[in-house]
C-alpha cells in the first residue's frame, strides 16, 4: 500500500498537491495566508490577511502552518 496520497486523483473542494506551496522561497501573499487559515477567499478575509501580514510579516503564515 502506498502511503503517499495520489496527487493525480481529484476530490471536489480539495486543492491538488501540485498547486499547494508554503511561500518558503518566495513572497508571501495575503491569499497564501487566507488559504493557510482554511478560510474562504473573500474580500473580507483577504483584508484580514493583509492586516496580519502588515503586523507580523512572514510569521503570519508560519503561525498557521504545522
Word description of this protein:
This protein has a domain of 36 residues. The protein is 39% helix and 0% strand. The protein is globular, with a radius of gyration of 14 Å. The two termini are 26 Å apart. The mean pLDDT is 81.
Query: What Rg is obtained from the alpha carbons, in whole angstroms?
Result: 14 Å
Distance between the termini: 26 Å
Question: Number of DSSP strands?
Answer: 0
From the spread of the alpha carbons, the general shape counts as globular
Query: Helical residue percent?
Result: 25-40%
The largest β sheet comes out as:
none
Counting DSSP H or I runs of 4 or more residues, the number of helices is 3
Mean pLDDT: 81
Strand percentage: under 5%
The helix/strand order is HHH
Oligomer: single chain
User: Runs with pLDDT <50, length 5+?
Assistant: none
| Computed structural class | mainly alpha
Write out key terms for the chains shown.
66 residues; mainly alpha; 3 helices; 39% helix; globular
Amino acid at each position: 500500500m502506498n502511503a503517499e496520497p495520489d496527487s493525480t486523483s481529484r476530490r471536489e473542494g480539495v486543492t491538488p498537491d501540485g498547486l499547494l506551496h508554503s511561500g518558503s522561497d518566495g513572497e508571501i501573499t495575503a491569499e497564501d495566508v487566507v488559504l493557510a487559515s482554511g478560510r474562504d477567499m473573500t474580500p473580507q478575509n483577504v483584508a484580514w490577511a493583509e492586516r496580519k501580514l502588515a503586523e507580523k510579516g512572514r510569521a503570519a503564515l508560519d503561525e498557521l502552518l504545522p
